[in-house]
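Usage

Read records sequentially. Each one opens with the input sequence:
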Amino acid sequence: MHSTKLLISTKFAPPRISARHVPRAGLLSLLSQTQQRKLALVTGSAGYGKTTLLAQWRQTCLQSHAQVAWLSLTSDDSGFTDFCAVFFAALQQIGVAVELDLFVEGSSQSAIDEMIASVLAGIANLASELFLVLDDYHHVEDPWIHKLVQKLLDQCPANFHLVIASRSAPPLSLGRLRVMDQMVEIDCVELPFSATETRSFLDGNLGPGKVNADDAGLIYEMTGGWPSCLQLIAIMLKNHPSAGSRLRDVVWRSNDLQTYLSEEVLADLPAELVEFAETLSLFRRFNAPLAEYVTGNPRAAELLRRMEFENLPIQPVDLDDRTPWFRFHRLFSEFLNTRVERRGVHAIADLHSRASRWFAANELLVEAVRHANLAGDVDLAASVIEGAVPANWTLGYLGPILGLLERLSPETLLKHRKLSFLACLAVAMAARAPIAQARLTQLQASEAARHPDIASRLPLIHAVIALQRDDAKHAIDLLESQPDAAADNPFLRYLALSVLATAYAGAGRFADARSLLDRHPMLPRDENSDMAIVAENTRVLLLLLEGNALEAERLASPLLARAQKEFGDQSVPANVCSAFVADAFYELNRIDDARETLANRHGLLESSGVEVTVRASLCRARLDLLQESPGAALAFLQRQVVRFRTVGLDRPVALMLAEQLKILLAKGDKVHAATVMATLDELAGAHADSQSFLAEIPAAAALARARMNLGERPELAIQALEEARRYALALKRGKLLTLVDLLSARALDELGRTDDAMASRSRAVQFGCQLGLVRTFLDEGLLAREELALLVKKQGSQDRSLQFARELLAGFPDDGTAKGLAVPAEPHSRAGRGQAALTQREIEILALVAQAMSNKRIALTLKITVETVKWNLRNVFSKLEVSSRYDAMVWARNRNLIQ
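and closes with the structure output:
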């Protein structure tokens, strides 16, 4: 046998774990079950962190006094004799006495039997738990090696466990082990980092706070948590910090990434398989019939199975379809795209054209239009849309249709009646009201408008444009008399319901909105319709407009999960749902959840419906204020003011200005606040008699005017607050009414009307408790804290609203001297944080937070309730004067309280 003395340092020791590693708590918990199993199998493509995971797991085993042997295999160990040399030397590392002299050169069944008998005899003398890790097992080629390993698995005693890491599933009797529950499996679906682990990795490698939430979200979206790709991006950002502003381009064009994928993923694959994969990279999803039709390769199904076996970065797509669908990991797909481009423009156009015809024949119309556009075949794209049956219309049409519009002249477009209508509707729904109005005027003047199925639907486009302009009254007038006009078209039916219900809510007619939605429920056959999900999400908007954050979050979170599962994380319904979910999360003081929900959703801030964009913008500004700085929040708000002015939307402009004024007053910058107030008053004057959504403009101006006068001219503040109260009551805006009562309490106290002040602050707390308005109070800073303290001190009862007031008081920081909004200082600069004392339980929870555990997982680990976890975290945030789990974790790490 070969001597192994020179191999020990390289083959029998795992790689060192970096101090900046990300603990894989969930996967380590899964691997801990290996003690009750014969085999743990970890499979995944190159760079998915298999070795690092097993190195972490080895440390936990050693801490429990188990014996762990490690063997890193290479191509040099692919032969039977070479493998046996290192394999049995590894066993000797854990005390398994093996008589190597018994072994003969060469392979045979009798030799294997003799070897296994010697191994089992050696194991029998040991009582401890024994683990043997075989890393990079995919290098094994000799079938006799697999027979040896299989024999060991079949006969090994209960205290011996084999752990295999490989890029592909080894040819062992895995099915039998699964049936006998003697196997732990982790594959490429479970290996990637989660979004939280990705953020921890970036912070560990680049420094806390060096990557903002949006960039972290973008990096996670691009890499899908692929550890090696994350490592390359971290190196790029470390060497070129300015690359953050052009992150996407830098990643796609990285030579290091291209080289890594070429050498580590594709190098050992057959040329036919590589060419096949390159072609499939043109598709967002693919299956065997599509692959065979486009490539002309009758072995397409076999090649797909080979890609799965080789554990290429390929993921199944969960669809209600008998034929399995797949997609490539995004970075891998982009990499393959750069290779397929070498075939030339005409060859690629032909592939897109073939794909378009296949998708059209299978009634997958969004993909059909997309590939027709990519092929440059305008006529094909137009005919695909024109031939679509109404039942197949989806929000996914919007992007392809808008792309097609850039290629078609108005004259050509008007020749296609149905396409003309859809194009006009798409522009209207994309928040381009002026362009939509111009196209609608062209459509009305055309021959197409005389066709009954177009003429009857034109009021819907008018209503969509009206709602985009915040003219709810006009939208109601257009649709109220004919709610069933589009009953034959599910897409238009749900769009009309959503528009009319939203218009009702804007006018404060919430009962009418709910009655409309209840009378026209989502039908079971439409439960996977993206427009139906948007219509259902209108119920969430009603709650948010009323100020009911508690109920809004309860309804919104499942809708967002459904939208992401059915249509993708960046789909239109997912974007719409995420705006409302983030709004509810923020109000409930779930700051990290709100930031994560909004991260990397720039379309929400630019081209969504008005109410969606407004709520996402305000939420983003408030998060910037809490987690970055007042300057960052003001700069963002100013950009949004410019954007909304450009498209002529006065209400969003007014709401952004009102938010600016609030921050400026908190900073003590009354000069700039007065300038903003003048602009607000000008807008309010122009809309003094406006109704529904547009009435929010004078309401926002009145509330801002009250803030300007608090503390100096309380009588003017009361006058302005009463004006805001009239709007709040007329529009049934619960959050606005709560704010009016809270600010009125301060003004009434300044006027010496103490009883009225107490009644006002009591009403504010009752509303807040009922609706879950946490940030409404916390964002008012010292003013709210003082008012709540007066209420708690005066009131002797123990009802729920008083408990709510006490919980709010516990959420305020101990410092802050300015009345009004407590503007956060820059990170790590607040006084008193270094002296905060945490309880042992709070430290335990932060230690688990550092392991990227969810609140539910922390609760299970510590055997406490989720509510107890949340309560402790709120106390930690209050003590440390932070607003996120991440900031609290960094504070504790800096003081060596946790690892």
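Summary fields computed downstream for this record:
- The CA atoms of residues 745 and 759 lie 8 Å apart.
- The radius of gyration is 32 Å.
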